[in-house]
Amino acid sequence: MVQPGDQLQLTVATGIPEADINEHPIRVDGEGNAHVPLVGPVQLAGLRVPEAERAVQVESIRRGIYREPQVALSMEKQMAHRVTINGAVSKPGVKSIPAASSDLFSALSESGGFQRDADTIVEITYPPQRGPTGQLLPSRTTRVDLLEIEEIGGSYPLPDGSAVMVPRRQPQTVHVDGLVMRPLRIELPFDRELRVLEAIAEAGGRRLSMADRIYVSRIDPGTGRTRVIQVSYKRALENSGENLVLSAGDVVTVQETPLTFTVGTLRNLIRFGFSSAVPGL
Asked: Is-same-fold flag (80-166; 173-261)?
């Protein structure tokens, strides 16, 4: 697509054997016109190169300059916008993007793609622009959720001097404690689900194989109240539907029961000896 600021190479063959083939560099001005030698200004902005060739040919004939000219145009240098991309991308920095395709998607592509901890919500800062009456409008920043962009529609064009910031995701975690080998906080993976049994496995597994009762404490985002979901370890092993998918902020507790308490106490007695475990013996 031809845009203001583009530089083109024009070749005109008049069809007259003794006439030379004319070659000229032309530039599209801010109004979208290219000043073609002998012909004058021809509106080319917004046309694809074959369409621009046809426009030059038609105007050459209409204005009586040539009878049957053969016109060829080639793009020498496209007008480019300088766009800055920073944050959680592979190749941050200032990118030169052809003006005709200077939009959010092109900028993200030029940056080499996202890093693993990139957030899906990006910030676009537009440079100061001239308003309808010529007044200078201040720069503005907008936030775009890439996961919703297909529903919103639009290509988010980026004028020269725009900046795109891809923030890093804030870590989202769950906590595992109770009858596990090593209580710990686990960061939720961004590209897949984390379920109860996997979280317990990352905590080293259960300290007692008979520990079956698991409580998941979860804050309801709508009410802010904490609700407790009970999960059976055995049933979760047998049926994946029982293996609860965890959410950010969940606390997973492998619960102590009278049976697990008794067995744990007996194990300690056997391990350290009755004489040291029971006072007076």
From this structure: yes
Q: Mean pLDDT per segment of 10 residues, for the chain of length 281 residues?
A: 88 72 87 91 92 94 88 89 94 90 90 88 90 82 84 74 92 92 90 92 90 92 89 93 93 78 58 50 39
Tokens of 86: 């920073």
Q: Which CATH superfamily is domain 173-261 in?
A: Outer membrane lipoprotein wza domain like (3.10.560.10)
Query: What is the rounded distance in angstroms from the CA atom of residue 27 to the CA atom of residue 36?
Result: 9
141-151 as b/e, with b when 16 or more CB fall inside 10 Å? eeebebeebee
Domain spans, the chain: 7-77, 80-166, 173-261
The CATH-assigned architecture of domain 80-166 is Roll (3.10)
pTM score over 0.70: no
Q: Cα 146–150–152 angle (5° rounding)?
A: 90
